[in-house]
Amino acid sequence: MYNNATHIDSKLMIPTDVRQQEIAGELDRAAICVWAAFGFMLNCDTFFKDVKWNKPRTPEWYYRPEAISFDASVEKFAAVFEDVISSQIAGKDIMLALSGGLDSRTLAAAVHRLGAKTFTYSYKFHNSFDETKYGKALAKIAGWDFEEYTIPKGYLWNKIDELAEINQCYSEFTHARQMAVIDKIAPHGNLFLLGHLGDLVYDGMGLDNNIPEHKLLEIIIKKMLKKGGFELGQDLWNAWGLNGDFKAYLEQRVGELLSAIKINNVNARAKAFKSMYWVTRWTNVNLQVFSHYHPIALPYYDERICKLVCETPEEYLRDRKIQIEYLKRYAPDMAKVTWQSKEPYHLFNHDKHLTWQHLPWRIADKSKRVLAEKVFNKKTVIRNWEIQFEGKENDQKLKEYLFNNAELTAELPESLIHKYYNNFKEKDAVYYSHPVSMLLTFSVFLSRQKKLKNISQ
Length: 457
Hints:
Layout: H1 16-21, H2 29-38, H3 70-89, E1 94-97, H4 103-114, E2 118-125, H5 132-142, E3 145-151, H6 160-167, H7 182-185, E4 191-193, H8 198-201, H9 213-224, H10 229-239, H11 246-259, H12 266-291, E5 296-297, H13 303-310, H14 314-317, H15 321-330, H16 332-335, H17 359-374, H18 384-389, H19 392-403, H20 406-411, H21 414-427, H22 429-456
Parallel strand pairs: 1-2, 1-4, 2-3, 4-5
């Protein structure tokens, strides 16, 4: 979360001083082990020991809930939220991605009430289920122009160098799927309105407020670790012969940051930690794909929203209650559009999800997917890495980056690279997709460093 500026530029994501200095210096291998495990750098770490990230100013997190009714909390949210959006989009032609979730839908309701000129869009993977239908329905209700895009198989290989320049390899590449279509979206306006962070600040963390400190630390680390991430981080630690134990180092680093947050409520404290250290170093990195083309507006990052969240009782935030009630109250037609994660239900009847009433729909949906895969040999793509790593052509490209890069094989044992590639191909693709993607990103990073050094000489 940042200040009340109309928009946020990419310098708040990765500051200029890091971009200019990182072509030289000794690698911070301990930081890279953490990066491999979490998918992002921790606190002020960069790839280099002598370069630190200058963290932008963020609001002070606290927890002082007002003695206020739920209805009053919804009314207060509506007033503050719409005021924030109004100030951020004034005089702009906005572009708004619409999905089947709540954050973009809440933005859509507010923008529609404000009467702003809006271009809307949504995208889906090739051979995936139709993610665009929710956005199309919302746009139709508001009377907005809407475009749907398909993320093609293997798009990354033609975009990987450009993406590495944008995000500086601080995040692995498969999550930035907007990169495939951003050049088609960008001509439709001059400001991207984004709903990032809404699912964090307007939900609960689901934690017991009586858990001890060591247990909270364990939970937070577990939440941040990606599948296969700890194993990769530990293997890198051992391959580089770093002193001490990787697990102990991880616990020490995260523990120091957590202990500095003086909030009594466990859920509010965990939320503050995630906003301060996870969002700033993971979510924000790929926001640069948008800010590379146009300014971006992030209402949920605004200080006024932060203050509102810090003064709202956690019980009202849990289970997205405030956003749901805001939509039901102020945009009932939009609230009746299917909630993707609770399909086939919407905001007025989502309580039926995962009850016995939901069972026939789940059986029919599973049968349809199995039939498509077994009979028609059409696998439904549901994960980011599937569009990028599966298939003969994708596999050939992946192997080129992993095994034909002298910089990578000079830095890491080939046996380690083969281990993760083979485990991904033969053992468990879901579990090992993250390690493979991090090795790919590290390979691109090392190649990029060589090019930058050659240019600077």
